[in-house]
Amino acid sequence: MAPATIPIIDFSGFYSSDPAAKTAVVDQIREQCGINGFFQITGHRVNPTLQENVLYWSKQFFALSDEAKQTCSKDNNTWNRGYEMLRSQILEEGTQPELKEGFYIGADIPTDHPYFVNKKLNSGPNQWPVEGFDEEKLEGFKSSTMSYYNATVSLASDVLQALALSLSLDETFFSKFMDGAVATMRLLHYPVQPPDSDAKLTRGIGAHTDFGAITLLLQDDVDGLQVWDKHTDTWIDVEPVKGAYVVNLGNLMQRWTNEKYISNVHRVINRSGKERFSIPIFISGNPDYVVECIPSCKAVGEASKFPPTTVEAAVSSGYAESYGRAQRFKQGLERAVAASA
């Protein structure tokens, strides 16, 4: 069997006035969503300059001192915005806390917004560093990241339109889901992985599936992302392509499609000897939207595999599990140290 690959789809055909070009893009997406739920797209509408700027500012942020980054620690709030230090999360059971640090950004809503007042799915004002950047640089960091965030969320809506057509639905099927949608962006930095680290236990991000509907990932030029291929029982390396987005389906979409489409296991192991930077945007959707089996995804008389659920309930449970796992690991280490004292 030939080695599996993650295809690169020229998404410009979806914007074409030629129906055949649009159908060709939709057909490629449909095929890949049923195989492993991952593909890359080029020919999208996110300006390359926005991509270059956000990667530049991401690197500038992570180059700040630990003290400066901690001034905007996500521990300062309860809605998951700000800096997340190394080894804060364990997504793969049985591995060590992950070798990545991150910075969480979302729609910058005020504290009187209903989402914040009602504690909807990690919604609230963004948090920015108060040390390390002068006023001009801080404004550059904020404006570049938010401009990029908005452009990529808009692209996600386009991808969802293509997904709707791939499921024999009206192109606007996901519009209500995206009306008032929650989306979370993470600037991620993977330090160089120590050469003597245990390959079976050390991860940049452990093997996991994403919690929401879809994820759009911008990579720099350092590899490390791997996708599990159940057909060959091997990990597929997702080579970085300049300007491209890695698109993958999350657990919410798998549930929505009655497992017709796949939310696939993936991980990051940074063996490159270089620092790796990437920027995913996780599309969760409107927190109150009720997700239930799409009619075209089951035969007449066939039962749905999952009961209806709100976006908030489905996505929140995934976050709680992964961070709870890291907290239990930390508590175990503390008990071990106390016992040996």
From TrEMBL:
Keyword annotations from UniProtKB, A to Z: Iron, Metal-binding, Oxidoreductase
A Pfam family recorded for this sequence: DIOX_N
Matches recorded under InterPro entries: DIOX_N, IPNS-like_FE2OG_OXY, IPNS-like_sf, Iron_ascorbate_oxido_reductase, Oxoglu/Fe-dep_dioxygenase_dom
Keyword Nucleus in annotation: no
Fe2OG dioxygenase domain: residues covered: 181-285
Record keyword Oxidoreductase present: yes
Alphabetized PROSITE patterns for the sequence: FE2OG_OXY
Record-stated family: Belongs to the iron/ascorbate-dependent oxidoreductase family.
Official protein name in the record: Fe2OG dioxygenase domain-containing protein
